[in-house]
Amino acid sequence: MKKKMCVFALAAFVLGLMPFQVAPLMSPLCAFADSFNMKTGAWELTYTSTSSGTPFPPEMLEKMPPERRAKLEEAMKARSGQPKTRIHKGCITQTDLDQNKFLKAEGEKETDCAVKVLTKSTTKLVMERSCPAHGANFKISVDVKTPETVVGTIDGSVGSGQMHTDVKGQWLGESCDEIKDRH
Q1: Which of 4, 55, 96, 144 stands the most exposed, by the fewest C-beta atoms within 10 Å?
Q2: DSSP 8-state class, residue 134
Q3: Long-range pairs for 115-121 at CB < 8 Å and ≥24 separation?
Q4: Same structural domain for residues 8 and 88?
């Protein structure tokens, strides 16, 4: 529907039926008119992450007792650069796809993070996510290989740490009946 509206608006502008002052108002709508070409339903997402530094805001570390902080920093140093894989099963709706919310972190509330879409097409999404309450900033890139498979990367900083995550997603089916996390 949005795509047809954009085509009509462009034609109206070219034919001189739409004032040029209105055309710039249409471009943000038309830029993201294409729906992301992923199937809705149950998905399995595999995240493989490596990190360095301490992924906690400095204010949080300052409030910790010194012995607890030392143990935490030692554990993070030992884990630094070591890949960690986790698998998440979730239900992705058309609303999640339209609003770019299908890679929301577990437990993340709508108001925790601000998202800025840099580019979006039917097969690629690049966005920035800023989460000031958690001291985190990320750049997320997702590529649709087929409507049933996606790959992506998440790069960013959390506290004084850096992280890189590779994401692989596989569509499991239309039904979300057995999925606990419904976004």
Answers
A1: 4
A2: G
A3: 117/32, 120/31, 120/32, 120/34, 120/36, 121/34
A4: no
Find tokens 């089916």 and name the residue: 173
List all residues 6 or more positions away from 148 whose beta carbon is below 8 Å from its beta carbon: 39, 170, 171
Same domain, 7 and 81: no
The model's pLDDT over 122-180, given as tens digits with 9 standing for 90+, comes to 999 999 998 887 778 899 999 999 999 999 999 998 877 888 999 999 999 999 988 77
Question: pTM for the whole thing?
Answer: 0.70
Q: Which domain holds residue 85?
A: 41-173
Can you tell me the distance from the alpha carbon of 101 to that of 141, in angstroms, rounded to the nearest whole number? 13
pLDDT digits (tens, 9 = 90+) for 163-178: 899 999 999 999 998 8
Residue 181 lies in a domain: no
Q: Looking at the structure, do residues 85 and 168 belong to the same domain, yes or no?
A: yes
- CA–CA separation, 114 vs 111, rounded Å? 7
Q: Does 15 share its domain with 101?
A: no
Could you tell me where the beta strands, DSSP code E, fall in 60-123? 84-92, 114-120
Report the first-to-last Cα separation within the chain, whole angstroms.
25
Sheet strands side by side (includes 84-92): 84-92, 41-52, 161-173, 149-158, 136-146, 124-131, 114-120
Residue 53 sits in the same domain as residue 24: no
